[in-house]
Amino acid sequence: MHDKVLIVDDDPGIRSTISALINELGYGSETAADGMDAMGMLDSGPYLCVFTDIVMPNMSGLELIRKIKARDVSLPIIVITGYASVEIAIDAMKCGASDFISKPFKVRQIELLLNKVKREKSLLEENRRFSDALHLHRLIDNLVGQLEDKNEEIISLQAISEKIISLKGIRDLVGAIVDVSKQILEEAEVAFFPLSRKDNKLVDTLSGKEMPADAELLLGNIVRKHNSGSALLDKFETIFPLMIEGQVFGALHIVSSSKLGEEKEGKILYLLNRSAERMENVALYEGLYENMLSTLNSMAKILDARDPHTSQHSTRVTSLSMTMAQALGLAQEERDTLYIAASLHDIGKVGIPDDILLKPGRLTDEEYAVIRKHPDIGADILKPLPPMAKETEIIRHHHERYDGKGYPLGLKGEDIPYLSRIIALADSFDAMTSDRPYRAGMTAEEALLEITRCKGLQFDPVLAQIFIEKMSGS
Ligand SMILES: [Fe+2]
Q: How remote is the CA of residue 345 from the centroid of ligand 1, in Å?
């Protein structure tokens, strides 16, 4: 059976154009005129992926993406945009879209997209077989699929997963709740069971056993039970809901030999409320971080797909930057920041039109002025992500020059963020040594001579000297 693709667009012309291109590639296609229709058709799947427009009557494309993802998180969705709008693409990706396609639709572009979808699908299936345990694993595995150079891949995954693991997470807080409760209650047995929202069961994370949660607990009320008769002793069970953002997150389960009483219940409630506040902050932060990572992942994808000549540029600049980080003995946190900033330093190029970005010959002054906007565009893309504040400024200033003649602000010397000065060196070195359609790249020696010449002009003289020594192996 051929893989088939679902195309959702209110414009019959676009539906038939994309459909014809997809059929030409040997895939089946079905079409829907709006989101309602599309949701109805999902049952007649499975589909390899869904192409959807964003602006449609009845149900917006973003809503459709959310609905599809709620139903089947693994179904890839590709957004059709009339023109390459970064905002729309990023919004859609935040909702779960995996890529986007803009007019004019080309068969080669669709072929690449479908190949990517298939590759990711098989990766995902493989991952499922190994472990379905943590969202984080999937996130990281998904990142694995994006990066081409295996070594680079390992460095980046480590940096990212270390950053997440080092966060003071919810698990630590749960442990603290249990410990403090034990201190308050002395001889009681205390355990915390997270609630599985899927089937409203409490999960014993030690044994893996699940038990249905009381209806009262699910309403956010304390449940008190008195078990007597069969056992040697009377047992009192008190189950407190832990509420986060108005939802039951789990239950603190206490078994004691006497009733807890008002005072002890009051203390436990206070503990739970304070912990919930703290967790709301952590959850917010973790949510943001997760969201940020998936957005980052999408962005790296957009950047790679865009320009075949520079698809490895970011990877090489990152690698050169990390070599500098090593030579300079940067702290881990700074290395992580540098890593992310270097990987995404040219992300703003997603906002540069194809005819300028992909132009094979030299650029006119006007075109060059457009290209020069990319550091600001990149910074604007990252600005809404609070944990990326440092990276945002580093990216904004990666084309500043030490003598103040760079852009966008013409910052000078030490006013340029330190990590931006490192990326500037790595970026220029890679640009000089790479082939372009209109010229061959310089040798490493020639490029290093050029960097020597530009010490204190384009580049930070101290950093440039270290870079030169590092690259020439002396
Ligand atoms: Fe750049």
A: 6
Rounded distance from Cα 462 to ligand 1 centre (Å): 22
Q: How far is the CA of 46 from the centre of ligand 1 (A)?
A: 41
Residues spanned by CATH 3.30.450.40 within the chain? 170-279
Q: Using alpha carbons only, what angle is made at residue 404 by residues 398 and 405, rounded to the nearest 5 degrees? A: 85
Tell me the CA–centroid distance for residue 313 and ligand 1, in Å: 10
170-279: CATH topology:
Beta-Lactamase (3.30.450)
What count of other Cβ atoms lies within 10 Å of the Cβ of residue 148?
A: 11
Give 382 Cα–ligand 1 centroid separation in angstroms: 15
Convert 346-390 into a string of H (helix), E (strand) and C (coil): CHHHHHCCHHHHCCCCCCCHHHHHHHCCHHHHHHHHHCCCHHHHH
CATH topology of domain 4-130: Rossmann fold (3.40.50)
CATH 3.40.50.2300 in the chain, residues?
A: 4-130
> 63 CA to middle of ligand 1, Å?
34
Residue 402 CA, ligand 1 centroid: distance in Å: 16
Centre of ligand 1 from the C-alpha of residue 341, in Å = 11
Ion ligand 1: residues, CB within 5 A, are: 346
Q: What is the DSSP string of 157-203?
A: HHHHHHHHHTS--HHHHHHHHHHHHHHHHTT-EEEEEEEETTTTEEE
- CATH: 3.30.9.10, 1.10.1760.20, 1.10.3210.10, 1.10.260.40. Which one for 307-471? 1.10.3210.10
Distance 406 CA to ligand 1 centre (A): 12
In the block, tokens 């013409």 appear at: 410
Å from CA of 374 to ligand 1 middle = 7
Tens of pLDDT, residues 200-239? 888 887 777 888 999 999 988 999 988 776 655 678 899 9
177-209 tens-digit pLDDT: 777 778 777 778 898 888 877 788 888 877 778
Read off the DSSP letter of residue 259. Answer: -
**How many whole angstroms from 25 Cα to the centroid of ligand 1?**
35
pTM attached to this predicted model: 0.46
